[in-house]
Amino acid sequence: MVKRSRIVAFFLILVLLGSTMGITIQGxxxxxxxxxxxxxxxxxLYEVQPAKKGQKIDKEVLASTAEALDKRINVLxxxxxxxxxxxxxxxxxxLAGVEDQNEAREILSTQANLTFRDANxxxxxxxxxxxxxxxxxxxDENGNPSVTLTLKSADKFRKVTEExxxxxxxxxxxxxxxxxxxxxxxxxxxxxxxxxxxxxxxxEVFNQNTVSIVGNFTAEEAKTLASLLNAGALPVKLKxxxxxxxxxxxxxxxxxxxxxxxxxxxxIIYLFMLVYYRFPGxxxxxxxxxxxxxxLLIFDWMNGVLxxxxxxxxxxxxxxxVDANIITYERIKExxxxxxxxxxxxxxxxxxxxxxxxxxNLTTILAAVVLFYYGTSSVKGFATMLLVSxxxxxxxxxxxxxxxxxxxxxSGFLNKxxxxxxxxxxxxxxxxxxxxxLDLPTRWDKLDFVKTRKWFFIISGTLIALGVVxxxxxxxxxxxxxxxxxxxxxxxxxPLTTExxxxxxxxxxxxxxxIVISGENKEMASARLKGVLSKEQIAELKSAFKxxxxxxxxxxxVSPTVGKELxxxxxxxxxxxxxGIILYTTIRFEWAMAxxxxxxxxxxxxFMVAFFSMTRLEVDLTFIAAVLTIVGYSINDTIVxxxxxxxxxxxxxxxxxxxxxxxxxxxxxxxTLGRSVNTVLTVLITVVALIFFGSESIRNFSIALFVGLxxxxxxxxxxxxxxxxxxxxxxLKKKGVIKTVKEKRRYSDQPQV
Length: 753
Description:
- This protein is α+β, with helices and mostly antiparallel strands.
- The chain is 60% helix and 14% strand.
- The chain is built from 20 helices and 20 strands.
- The protein has helices spanning 4-31, 36-39, 59-76, 101-109, 154-165, 185-188, 219-231, 248-301, 308-337, 342-374, 378-411, 453-474, 480-483, 498-507, 535-549, 560-588, 591-615, 621-652, 658-693, 699-735, and strands at 33-34, 41-50, 82-86, 90-96, 114-117, 123-126, 130-139, 145-151, 173-176, 210-214, 236-246, 305-306, 477-478, 485-491, 514-518, 524-529, 554-558, 618-619, 654-655, 738-739.
- The strands form six sheets. An eight-stranded antiparallel sheet has the order 3-4-2-11-17-14-16-15. A three-stranded antiparallel sheet has the order 6-5-9, with no helix packed on it. It has a three-stranded antiparallel sheet with strand order 7-8-10, covered by helices on one side.
- A hairpin with a 5-residue loop joins strand 7 and strand 8 (145-151).
- It starts with a helix and ends in a 14-residue tail after the last strand.
- The model has no long low-confidence stretch (mean pLDDT 83).
- Pfam families: Sec_GG, SecD_1st, SecD_SecF_C, SecDF_P1_head.
- Residues 240-409, 551-729 form the Protein export membrane protein SecD/SecF C-terminal domain.
- Part of the Sec protein translocase complex. Interacts with the SecYEG preprotein conducting channel. SecDF uses the proton motive force (PMF) to complete protein translocation after the ATP-dependent function of SecA.
- Its main location: membrane.
């Protein structure tokens, strides 16, 4: 009898969840904070240096500097800036959505140390003599913009003017950021645009507490100067060691393209699940939709900043989330094929698939945690989204999908409806035959992975040797992230040519290493410079290119010091992730499987590196993120196979010959080959969508993932398993017989002889 109440409960849950999602999703999207790579803005890493001899840079100095920077950002009117103290002498500032990046850069790094000096550069007064909030933008008697300063003491100003009125020349020079030993009034007074703010002549003694700074200011410049003086001088000097800026138009295009890629990739996954897994596939599409909603909701609750790699992680997360469904549904199909009822098959399949899903997710979490710890800015965004995605995929794909499917299974409606699970009647054994799922025939039964192992080793060995030669000869095309320098990305309203972009650089006396034209209509160009542009050069370049091409370019700079640090951190991250996976796999499985797994992962990582060396694609920070993602994800298939091998080893109880080991390996790979291909296929769908439809900014990242996934499915099937066979046969040779099940000790109260 069909229990209709359970089916009604299913639809009520769907209506409740669907209506909640429909009502709240727009608010979540509107409230979502976009990173600077999606809405424009810039990020800069400052090295904090002493402003005076003997000054120590300690935690208090860093904190006061961060506070001073925050006051200056308030002048810009940027909402929710990010200011982070890093290490012992660095501060990272991220300003998303800032309209005038040149102004922001100038306001942040200008020390704003106001001084009043005589014609001989002798200090008379400084910023400490200024009354708090005493700078205001005003207009002089001719209607020109000026800045009026209110001083703390009229008496001190009287004494200063008394001294200067009798000097020759009798000028009070007002400086901003005067550098001892470098700047002088005598040198600057001859220049058309002197460095000092103004130098009024003092013809009489002033007994007042106000001073006017009159110069060639615009109203906006005078207002900014007043705000800057009110914010106060920085207690230190700031040196840019890393910076990246994104034009608003770049961010808008990147967002639109990546969302389109996500929609296409996710739609294809939904279609695949419906066609291949039928009704359970429909349940998967429902839970995946809920999963996407929950990821965005949690990210909003976390007050997280959504970056371009973060969206890529969300899209990848859909492909990874469906893996748990595939593993579960394949186990349910196996249970149905041995003759069990739908209810029994669902219960057994759900139970038996849990350990595989848990192990696979934990290894990916490990890689994501390492990425978050060693990553910077957008890479941290990717790692955060990846962590949230993995945890929520476990909740939705493992728990929610089983609850929803259980309502139908326990209602009795699906009894005898094996076709709804994608199983043909001809494939189902009679329960009386006492068939075990481990004995089921597969479409791959003719494949012998032990016999062909030497061919696999030869193919991989040859490709690795070729890769070593390629890397030795061509090396890697390192981005400025690792080699230092400047990267400039240009966006134009009209098609670009190499000559046109090169001419624009020549007019600014900037020599480029190479210019690459891209985009559907050749509207984008990128160039690299060996040197690190100064903030003045960046400001000039941005203004000139905006006038020439219609949009502000993206400009990123990395100092040699930071480049070396990023390279070192990338190596450490890869090493820690590898060690973690070895330890985890050893604890959960055995040492032979752990070594085989890590060798296959290093095999995958090397192929990614060799491919990028051969194709001359640029290796940047997102490439490292891709490698670590593959290290965490690629082991999924290996673990699914090892999990089945563990079951077959328990069934075998003892390995007495090499043939026993070969049988366990071959049977295990054959039984899991279908789900291994399907799980990788779903992630590949999203990656291919990102390559063809996503933003150019993460194209290399997507290509790296594609190469890693293809290498990963190959190594999981053809390298990891055969390597385990080699290790196991050597162990057998030493031990004679290998016990694969720990026998419980039997206790007896009878006398022992």
